[in-house]
Amino acid sequence: MPISRDHLESAIRSAIPIIHLDIIDQSNGCGENYAVFVVSPAFEGKNTLARHRFINEVLKDQIAQMHAFSQKTLTPKQYEAQQVSEVA
Amino acid sequence: MSLNMFRSSLRSGLSSSLRTSATVAFSSPRIALARRFLSDDARAKIQSAVKSTPVVLFMKGTPEAPMCGFSRAAVQVLGLHGVPPEKIQTFNVLEDQELRTGIKEFSDWPTIPQLYVDGEFVGGCDILLSMHQSGELEDLLEKKGILPPLSEEARASSTSS
């Protein structure tokens, strides 16, 4: 059964405060390949591995049903810095 | 340790343990919640595998013929850094279903590829790529003695380019 974008979004939003969230369906329709980009203050002080483990846990059941899952996790500060460097 | 030895020993260990441990009631609540089926025996085998060489990659396919874009990317990043062949070992999880599920549980990580450096879990493809971009991967490989440290001169020219 395909996993819906909304399902992933609500799971993430209910787990941590969200500044920015992109959920990209990369599956061409089958709903088994998602990439998420999460910006949250909850990531402050946590290394990338800990952040990814957290998201893996939040989406545990969904990821188990997917073929592929990719994620990027930033703090608001990192997100701002990234936007500045993209503009520059 | 040869790959074949590992594979056969892991398979026998895992399949027999899976049969017996699935019905065992675990005493630790954390273990029970996570529905852990990995036996001590299977765990010990994966533990020795992750320490078999300084760099260990669990992947789909082989470095010569990766069977997934994420595994291919992981191999390419390690290749870019010039990790010496004798310091890296890869395991093809597609050839071993028990390893494929066992390593996910062992690392508490849901996807393949998975990278270990010096016996420690580093992360999957996303983490490997971001560490590559930030320079953390190179630092880690140098710190663990897997890559020779760059001379000050080389370091200066690599940052200025």
Automatic annotation (TrEMBL), chain A:
GO terms for molecular function: 2 iron, 2 sulfur cluster binding. Gene3D superfamilies: BolA-like. It holds the Pfam family BolA. One of its GO terms (cellular component) is cytosol. GO terms for biological process: intracellular iron ion homeostasis; protein maturation. PANTHER family: BOLA-LIKE PROTEIN 2, BOLA-LIKE PROTEIN-RELATED. Belongs to the BolA/IbaG family. This is Bola-like protein. It comes from Daedalea quercina L-15889.
UniProtKB/TrEMBL annotation, chain B:
Keywords: 2Fe-2S, Iron, Iron-sulfur, Metal-binding, Redox-active center. It holds the Pfam family Glutaredoxin. One of its GO terms (molecular function) is metal ion binding. PROSITE patterns: GLUTAREDOXIN_2. Residues 55-122 form the Glutaredoxin domain. GO terms for biological process: [2Fe-2S] cluster assembly. InterPro entries: Glutaredoxin, GRX_PICOT-like, Monothiol_GRX-rel, Thioredoxin-like_sf. GO terms for cellular component: mitochondrial matrix. Gene3D superfamilies: Glutaredoxin (3.40.30.10). This is Monothiol glutaredoxin-5, mitochondrial.
